[in-house]
User: Fold this.
Amino acid sequence: MLTKRIIPCLDIKDGRTVKGINFKDLRDAGNPVDLAKAYSQEGADELIFLDITASHENRRQLLAKLVREIARGINIPFTVGGGIQSVKDVDILLHAGADKITINSAAVRNPKLIEDLAKNFGSQCVVVAIDAKQIEQDWTVFLSGGRVATDWTLLDWAKEAENCGAGEIMFTSMNHDGTKNGFADQITAAIAKAVSIPIIASGGAGKLEHFKTVLTTGKADAALAASIFHFGEIPIPKLKQYLQEQQIPIRPVY
Assistant:
């Protein structure tokens, strides 16, 4: 059985790590370079680095210098996203040290971008991020940091992303983001059933038990969190020890 992964997420705005609730009310969470090094040393399986303002502000530059600094200080896989629009953008990030890239708004607006990136760099390099909100009984996909609703439903877009060549899906529940009330386990499991590629669950982590649930009931391949790691509420070694005790396959902390 493949091991499950624990992934801290570094949301970056103006060179600093930030965190909010339901995609709003951002507060400073520290220096991303220092946090990245600490997470690598503590036993995180991967890191995800997102310039959360890139799509909204329509900026193409992706802070490649910061990516290089982070990559030099860690020895674990590293995903970068925010404002990616082209094969050239990805080429710059990979040469700066990223192992994978993630695209969100640009992929919905131009699904062929997924195909182009998969063709040039391989599907294993392409993570499609999906931000969705439950509105009554439906889950609607949103763009631009949760500001723009689309006509896509969550499951339909997840399947389309896989068909276009995505190697992984990172799903964030906007309803759960930053609330610390638990992941969206039911819909996460539905995504896992609908596609055959790995699912990274994001949004809602607050307790050790939340990770266990999303990795079992939620069928997620990886669990992502931000504030509980950034502010020291749940140390990664403690989380991994707990998951091992719960018989969940996880890479140990050495």
